[in-house]
Design goal:
This protein is of the alpha/beta class. The protein is built from 20 helices and 9 strands. It is globular, with a radius of gyration of 26 Å. The termini are far apart. Bound molecules: nicotinamide 8-bromo-adenine dinucleotide phosphate. Keywords: Gluconate utilization, NADP, Oxidoreductase, Pentose shunt. Catalyzes the oxidative decarboxylation of 6-phosphogluconate to ribulose 5-phosphate and CO(2), with concomitant reduction of NADP to NADPH.
């Protein structure tokens, strides 16, 4: 056996990952795909890679050094289970099976338990960065046992993206069983929020600020030089600069305004809801895609809206205001995302390190940004941080932009331009900052209709007012669930 690593599943992601692995010194890569044509095509097109092709899983297993380490890159779901079963037939105890697909983390928890029973290591690894990342260097979020990471970690370090700040590879052992796929899922949720916030900034600059797409592209390119510098801002400028060859119109004006999704944003929000983690920025981003993709509903409602407001008059300050609103809302989205990560860790018994997670997102993945280095620093300063918004650096940044943020949200509302993620993020910030919340009134309502009881600000204990009788307050012993 000559290969130190194998890849099963040679569609675009698996092929690119295999080529990436083969291009790094010290790796010899075994490759296998259910349909042999894909294997042949890869090996023929990339003879320089020195792949060891296999036409059966037996042959694949025989070509791997022990402990055998194989990365599965097949369609998430049933295909993954089928390949895991197949590998368990031909591997031996102690070997390492890695799922690099986009699995739901609860599936990974289940698979890890089953595979471990059979004596193998199972690692669910979130891999971000799309096709190009797989080929040139992704951000990798492996879960699984610490023991398997001793073998797998050094191999993954050879292919991971490297952070521009310090050259560190963007991979770390995230936590046990499903931790890697969980963190990858939240990454995708944050990506939804980031994209929505950028979309709202564009919409406001255009519809209120009166700028054309090409001008907005310039604005984004300029923003990309500062603290907002990120892959998503960079590609936004590219997309806005694009002109449709057929019509000569801006590309954004010829694309149907119905956003697609593959479901990872929905998973993030569902999981966060179960964890009691309020990820309103991410949720609004998922909802906004949902609203956009029901044209029949939009077409029914649009004519019923009698008068739509004129865009507010804005001055030259507006562009900078939007930048600050975008930045502050982004801080909130990440604060919420990291809260969800930590809540998941508590729920599932993972010792997640938020600073390390921020670090491995600095390159390779879609949300890569200068900003993530700042988040890593914040958790480095205080690993027990209760919210990113409480970190002195981010608190200062958001406070500095707060007036602009408020002007932008108010301007959007008065202009009739939807800005769900901007406004939800601002409300979240104001909620955390408020001296008192109307939750007190809600407790009163709950006690009124359901005798759900409440606590007082001035005394220990649990209380209930007899709303339907004498309206006298009584202390009760146990709060009902
Ligand atoms: P696909 O998701 O299109 O899956 C195609 C691969 O699955 C082929 O190799 C196919 O083999 C194999 N396969 C299927 Br389908 N059913 C199988 C079965 N029952 N047994 C064995 N193999 C089976 O490939 P992809 O687009 O390269 O994505 C691979 C994974 O990476 C997915 O989980 C995807 O969600 C994830 N992904 C991640 C990113 C990212 O940015 N991180 C991007 C895109 C995809 P065949 O050739 O014999 O049909």
């Amino acid at each position: 056996p000559r290969a130190n690593i194998g890849v099963v599943g040679l569609a675009v992601m698996g092929s690119n990952l295999a080529r990436n692995l083969a291009s790094r010194e010290g790796n010899t890569v075994a490759v296998y795909n259910r349909s042999p044509e894909r294997t042949e095509a890869l090996v023929n097109e990339h003879s320089e890679a020195g792949f060891i092709p296999a036409t059966s899983l037996q042959e694949f297993a025989a070509s791997l050094q022990r402990p055998r380490t194989a990365i599965i890159m097949v369609q998430a779901g049933k295909a993954t289970d089928a390949v895991i079963d197949g590998l368990c037939e031909v591997f031996e105890p102690g070997d390492i099976i890695v799922d690099g697909g986009n699995a739901l983390f609860t599936d990974t928890i289940r698979r890890e338990a089953t595979v471990r029973e059979r004596g193998f290591h199972f690692v669910g690894a979130g891999i971000s960065g799309g096709e190009e990342g797989a080929l040139k260097g992704p951000s990798i979020m492996p879960g699984g046992s610490a023991e398997s990471y001793e073998t797998l970690g050094p191999i993954l370090k050879t292919i991971a993206a490297r952070a521009p700040e310090d050259g560190e590879p963007c991979v770390t052992h995230v936590g046990t069983d499903g931790a890697g796929h969980f963190v990858k899922m939240i990454h995708n949720g944050i990506e939804y929020a980031d994209m929505q916030l950028i979309g709202e900034a564009y919409d406001l600059l255009r519809r209120v600020g009166g700028l054309e797409p090409a001008q907005i592209a310039e604005v984004f390119s300029e923003w990309n030089q500062g603290p907002l510098s990120s892959y998503l801002i960079e590609i936004t400028a590219e997309v806005l600069r694009q002109v449709d060859a057929e019509t000569g119109k801006p590309f954004v004006d010829v694309v149907l305004d119905q956003a697609g999704q593959k479901g990872t944003g929905t998973w993030t929000v569902q999981s966060a809801l179960s964890l009691g983690a309020p990820v309103s920025g991410i949720a609004e981003a998922v909802f906004a895609r949902g609203v956009s993709s029901h044209p029949e509903q939009r077409e029914t409602v649009r004519p019923t809206v009698a008068s739509r407001p004129e865009p507010q008059q804005v001055d030259e300050r507006f562009v900078e205001d939007v930048r600050k609103a975008l930045y502050a809302s982004k801080v909130v989205a990440y604060a919420q995302g990291f809260d969800a990560i930590l809540a998941g860790g508590r729920e599932h018994g993972w010792e997640l390190n938020p600073g390390e997670i921020a670090k491995i997102w600095r390159a390779g993945c879609i949300i890569r940004a200068v900003f993530l280095g700042r988040i890593a620093e914040a958790y480095g300063r205080n690993p027990e941080l209760k919210s990113l918004l409480a970190d002195p650096f981010f608190a200062g940044e958001v406070a500095e932009g707060a007036d602009a943020w408020r002007r932008v949200v108010a301007t959007a509302a008065l202009s009739g331009v939807p800005a769900p993620a901007f406004s939800a993020s601002l409300s979240y910030y104001d909620s955390l900052a408020a001296d008192r919340l109307p939750a007190a009134l809600i407790q009163g309502q709950r006690d009124f209709f359901g005798a759900h009881t409440y606590r007082r600000i001035d005394r220990e204990g649990v209380f209930h007012t007899d709303w339907s009788g004498d309206r006298v307050e009584r202390r009760v012993d146990v709060a009902p669930k």
